[in-house]
Write a structure and sequence with these properties.
This protein has about 375 residues and is an alpha/beta fold. It is about 30% helix and about 20% strand. It has a domain of about 250 residues: 4-Layer Sandwich (Purple Acid Phosphatase, chain A, domain 2). Strand 8 and strand 9 form a beta hairpin. The radius of gyration is 20 Å and the shape is globular. Bound molecules: fe (ii) ion.
Length: about 375
């Protein structure tokens, strides 16, 4: 039985290649879900590790109705100068260099696997599932999560944090409009963004920044973020110019009624290897309540043992294309599947993995509704 309550049916299991090893999946016992299971099953044999390099340019505009250019036109030297104000020179050079290497490696992968999105799209169209997948991906929901801890300062009882993850803003305009609508109705004290603002993984990012500017208009209060494996350090000046403070292995203090908690954030640990949890935690007293934001939950061991009380993350998309019952075909992560979406615990650390509001590769979802998450903090009795 899986975390989602799925039982094996008499039809028996099928072996598929999981993240680290072969595993079995079984058709649902509910006959109504069995057709979709068998239609989606062939996708379990595709390993969609390439990211779409030709993200749809939907032309988000800023509030003045003009296309925004942000920092796209800047030379690396100009961006380096801005980043030097935020980081040590060598750190900035290292991040720019690794980002450049990252892009060239991805080009190699894309050349080999560029057919993946096309193939998946073709399969879904052939099966008559593509339009339903597009529609599913636009139905972003507001999901509530309760973080209850005895370590939380009393002043933060009732404190609300909204989390946006994996927006991939250029990929699905309808989903982003839904995000904006949901944010307009929600009440929260702080906003955290757990990365993957960009749809593609290389090239231009002006459309991404323009899309982020549109979402940012709906955000209230302090906004903190981290970069994901789709993002580039070159986006940091543009995001920070919007008032989104990107935590680059750093931490900040959040105060309320003379009490405080700490919020740390790290670079992408999934592909770019830019995380430094020790550095992010360096200024946090061990006995004070702390939250780490990371694009990927794969850092759960390090985060727990460094002493963070909470880890908020995304990256997995919850599988994005799941079998009935919410069973992910792949999580693109090295971690227990129980940590692939929603709330979980590891030792004393409270974890949450957002399935994200957007989608990557192709803008479809099955059995895995997109979300923005409202975390309600409470002191345990
Ligand atoms: Fe993502």
């Amino acid at each position: 039985m899986t975390k989602s309550g799925h039982h094996a049916s008499p039809a028996g299991p099928t072996w598929i290649k999981g993240q680290d090893a072969w595993r079995t999946i079984s058709p649902p016992s509910n006959p109504a879900n069995q057709l979709e299971y068998y239609l989606l099953l062939p996708l379990a044999f595709l390993r969609p590790c390439a990211q779409e390099s030709f993200a749809v340019k939907l032309g988000f505009t800023n509030s003045a109705g003009n296309k925004t250019s942000h920092t796209q036109g800047m030379a690396n030297e100009d961006i380096l100068t801005i980043l030097e104000q935020r980081l040590a020179l060598l750190d900035a050079r290292q991040r720019l260099g690794i980002g450049k290497d990252h892009q060239s490696q991805l080009f190699d992968r894309l050349e080999k696997l560029a057919w993946s999105p096309i193939l998946i799209r073709t399969i879904l169209r052939t099966m008559g599932l593509y339009r339903r997948g597009i529609s599913n991906a636009a139905k972003v929901t507001l999901r509530h999560n309760y973080i209850v801890s005895a370590h939380l300062p009393k002043a933060f009882d009732g404190f609300d944090i909204v989390q946006l993850s994996d927006l991939h803003v250029e990929m699905n305009a309808a989903a982003m409009e839904r995000v904006v609508d949901l944010l307009g109705e929600a009440h929260f004290d702080v906003c955290v963004l757990t990365g993957d603002y960009r749809g593609g993984t290389n090239g231009r990012y002006d459309t991404t920044l323009a899309g982020m500017a549109r979402v940012r208009e709906s955000l209230k209060g302090p906004i903190y973020g981290v970069l994901g494996d789709h993002d580039t350090i070159c986006m940091v000046p543009g995001l920070e110019a919007m008032g989104i403070r990107i935590l680059l292995n750093e931490s900040v203090i959040i105060e309320r009624s003379s009490q405080r908690i700490h919020l740390g954030g790290i670079g992408d640990a999934h592909f770019q290897g830019m995380e430094n949890i020790e550095k992010a935690a360096a200024a946090i007293p061990h006995d004070e309540f702390s939250i780490l934001i990371s694009h990927t939950p794969e850092v759960y061991r390090q985060a727990a043992h460094v002493g963070f009380n909470v880890l908020l993350s995304g990256h997995t998309h919850g599988g994005q294309i799941c079998l009935p019952g919410g069973i992910p075909i792949t999580l693109n992560s090295a971690l227990p599947r129980s940590m692939g979406s929603g709330a979980w615990k590891y030792h004393g650390m409270i974890g949450y993995t957002s399935v994200g509001a957007g989608s990557s590769i192709i803008p479809v979802r099955f059995n895995c509704p997109p979300e923005i998450t409202l975390h309600h903090l409470h002191v345990s009795s």
